[in-house]
Automatic annotation (TrEMBL):
Highest classification ranks of the organism: Eukaryota, Fungi, Dikarya, Ascomycota, Pezizomycotina
Gene3D superfamilies the UniProt entry points to: Translation machinery-associated protein 16-like (1.20.1440.170)
Pfam families for the chain: Tma16
Cross-referenced InterPro entries: Tma16, Tma16_sf
Composition bias type Basic residues, residue spans: 7-17
PANTHER family, A to Z: TRANSLATION MACHINERY-ASSOCIATED PROTEIN 16
GO CC list: nucleus
Protein name from the UniProt record: Putative translation machinery-associated protein
Region described as Disordered: spans on this chain: 1-20
Species assigned in the record: Aspergillus candidus
Protein family per UniProt: Belongs to the TMA16 family.
Length: 178
């Protein structure tokens, strides 16, 4: 049981003894229903937030795995290469799905999803690709010591890197063109 419902349940059971003997419209039954509704609402909001953050978490996880911990500072061209590698990470799978598909058949849902994700990331790269700032040794060390938690990302610095090579500082969490 979630925390709020557990607290209310515990309080009522101490007071009454048996929860099963509550009247349908009693104050205690209403408290239990309100606590249960609140816990459902909180868990839905938490799940929605986690789904919204997942693409950014996957991105940081990719850079965390690909960048060696003992690496020094990256140049702007190196960071552009990392961004291009990230964007094109699903190209082999797309090519495999296209080769398996018979001629004249529509693409599978997986292939469409991968193509759409690649297109969105390419458009983002045109305007400013959000990634950790690896141009300083401190940024590389912070990425290497990242524990996989969303709140731990607030200690890192982020940038927006364009395809042209322009670099500007960005905020965490990313929003709009920050």
């Amino acid at each position: 049981m979630p925390v709020a419902l557990n607290k209310v349940h515990k309080h009522i059971s101490k007071k009454r003894g048996s929860i099963g003997a509550l009247h349908e419209n009693s104050r205690d039954a209403k408290r239990l229903r309100r606590a249960n509704a609140r816990d459902d609402r909180v868990s839905r909001v938490h799940a929605t937030m986690a789904r919204g953050r997942q693409s950014y978490m996957d991105r940081i996880k990719y850079f965390h795995e690909i960048v060696p911990a003992e690496a020094g500072a990256f140049s702007d061209n190196d960071m552009k290469d990392l961004a291009v590698r990230y964007i094109n990470r699903s190209v082999p799978e797309i090519e495999q799905l296209q080769s398996e598909r018979r001629k004249g058949r529509p693409p599978t849902r997986r292939e469409e999803a991968l193509l759409q994700r690649t297109d969105v990331e390419n458009k983002e790269f045109q305007t400013g690709f959000w990634l950790p700032d690896l141009s300083h040794v401190d940024g590389v060390k912070a990425l290497a010591s990242w524990n996989g938690d969303w709140s731990a990302l607030s200690a890192m610095k982020f940038i927006r890197l364009t395809k042209d090579g322009n670099k500007q500082p960005s905020a965490f969490p990313p929003g709009g063109m920050s």
